[in-house]
Fold this protein.
Amino acid sequence: MAESERGDTPHNRGVFHARSEIMNADAVRRALWRMSHEILEQNRGLSELVLVGLEAGGVHLARKLAENLLEIEKQNVPVGTLDVAFYRDDIGIRQVAPSNPTNMPFDLASQIVVLVDDVLFTGRTIRAAMDAIVDFGRPAAVQLAVMIDRGHRELPIRPDYVGKNVPTRRDELVDVTENGVLLGVMKDSKP
Amino acid sequence: MTKKHIRGIDDLGKSGIEEILVLSDHFREVSNRRIPKVPALRGKTIALLFYEDSTRTRLSFETASKRLSADSLNFSIGSSSVKKGESLRDTIETISAMGVDAIVVRHGSAGVPWLLQRWTDAAVINAGDGSHEHPTQALLDCYTIRKQLGELNGKKISIVGDIKHSRVARSNVKAFLALGASVTLVAPKTLMPFNSDDWGVETTDQFDSVIEDSDVLYMLRMQLERQQKSFVPSLREYAKEYGLSDSRAKNMKPESLIMHPGPMNRGVEVSSTIKENPKSVINNQVANGVIIRMSALYHLLGSGSVNKLEGFSDE
Amino acid sequence: MSELLLQGGRVIDKSGDRFADVLIDSEGRIAEIGKGLKGRETLDVQGKIVSSGFVDLNAYLGGPEDQLSETIISGTESAVKGGYTAVVAIARNSVVADNASSVKALMELSEEASCEIIVAGSATLHNDAGTMSPLGEISDAGVKLFSASGPPLTDFETTRRIMEYSQKYDITLLYSCSNSFLSPKGVMNEGAVSSQLGIPGIPAVAEEIEVFQLSQLALLTGANLHFQQISTAKSIEIINEAKSNGASITCEVSPHHISLDESFITSFDARYKVLPPLRSKQEIASVKELITSVDAIATGHSPCQDHLKHQAFADAPFGTTGLEAALGASIMHLDIPLKEILRLLSWSPAEIAGIADTHGGDLVPGRPANLAVFDPEVTWVFEGDLMASKCSVTAFEDIELKGLVSHTLVDGKLVVIDEVVQDHGK
């Protein structure tokens, strides 16, 4: 789910109650396959391209895209993982805790960086990610791949590659896993 | 968010210690980057109020602040900012009026961080108060041990030396016990705290009795003045009975650690070549100082609990 | 001054405990004690105790050299608010009490006081603690009590000689047993708490050794001694043993030593920094068991400028105020009859101070009306800001007490009415 939804908000306290399944496992798999081709086509190949998965939801998606690209082009694409907690704009307003340490073992200078996340919501996570990215070198370009775009942007951010566009209400939550994508709400945890 | 402090290990408890250790893995990665800096505490101001001279610890906190993009203000006894004779309370209120978010304080008298906390809205971090506590040292020691030996739970740690006057020992005892280690204090009676029965530790004045069993030998600095006040007859005798010589170190368990908070008196509590001993992690302790302090500052001014995503059950 | 009638109270003094009215004549003396009396002015004291006013053997009321910690005016207002009609003023600086003219000057200053002040002299010179001051000359000026803790503990000879010489005059030597030679840096009780906090401690045995040494010298020389601020049970036992062997010694315990233990210091608040230090809970329990063999409760009232207590524990001065909390702390914490408490607060210290003719003693017609009127049942919480003392930082802050003085009469004049100190316009 979108990074900006995590943290200690009433939104996130409690238990996730799924209301509907937006995509099943096959649909996710097909979307990833299509997106891999789109990345390839857009960038006319894989030279000087790296994938950066955002902790925590974008990491396995980035790895899946890399697997796909290896199968399609027989070429290894470097995959880094990025935790943007320390770049967020809501530190000090709510509890902000990182998930897993960043692992970016390469210089991004002159690379095309494809940020990968599970859900694009307000856009604040991606803004934070872009701030983080430039600390690792000056990329040639930064592109964005997301499984779900759920609307409600608060910043001028737009994705390059989208699995599915899903209109949502603000109070709803989208949960992306290998088994599919669920739409639901948070309810109070059981006492 | 409720205001937090790190005046002593009890302010953190086991969960607070765990949070800081986990955060430290993140800040270790940040510190290894080409640009070892994140904007996490941008706009925050951290006052460094050192009544005791300590360049090392102060620089460690300063570096930690800078790596988090915070501003640091130095009010230390060397500079003219700390006016001699100005009451502690007046100094704190003046600093607070400047709008600081955190105050890192080191003072020769026990209890000063507790007083400060009453007179300021800023978060308070204790960088050493008299012989009472030095929590960030204990945290970096826990982190160092965990990185080398894994979880502290069940490990046997022996702290050797002038326990009575050591704030490092007091914080370490609390932190190690909180994480489930067992602790033995080793010192001559003159340097053992008067009444440590209810500390939850074993005590002995026989150093050799703990060497083979301990997973960690934590050596404390022996202050040279103690000899003059008859705490020990001579430093030579102290070194003979309680010093970690190379021959004693040979009898240590494989996979055990030698630690020291620094600065060392070579030839007194440790041999001159102790840092070269493969069991020594003294250099790691120093390196871990900055990242632990980054975690401590972030813990107070940034985050709170480590993110445990609440289970998503389908219902 | 017209006749004042205290009506309907329970009158407790050295030899009685009865419900009676107290009539005070126009000269400020007790005219009659009995039932159904009539007076021109009546004060209803039903439900309250009327007792002889309290006498404090140990208070610091400031001095000519220090008007910031306390003054005679603020100090005695604090005293009368606590039910005291006489206070022994102890000098912090012996320069003011080591000769007759200084002492007389102090006595003159005391005329501004709300209650009677007994000036204590100093048994040694201010600039030479090994030399006796002119005890005879000072005693002729009317001084009975002399602070004698000048010479260091190791100067056995000087201490002995002062005791020997003192007997020519009807004087009592006051000793505070806190020279803490066993731990010069100690600032709190040595024990589990000081170990935990890493703060240098003063062991109980340091006081006990001093008490033993001095009480043996008292036996040897026959001098009159009074031990100030005793804080351990063993000290009391040593004193009792010496008494039983014929020593002319008395001792006092403070209200804070029977109500506050060392665990308060875990807050690092310097309001709890006192000398002798607050002891352990077990020690306090043992002291309370021996309280009936103690001769007085004395506050050791030790005000200082507030900001000095807002410092690191090790750096702040020792002492706490106590004049306004003494009754409340005693009733709250001592499980003994009210009459015993009043013995400790009133007639026993009056005898030690040599003023039993006018304070304490039996309330009989002809005596000056130095009285305290209080409700022994009411519980209340002490607030430093509301004290009459100049010093508002007190160890009793937020402490629950039982027993509250409502009226105090000094020489028949109401100096405290409904807990409010009256402007006496002297």
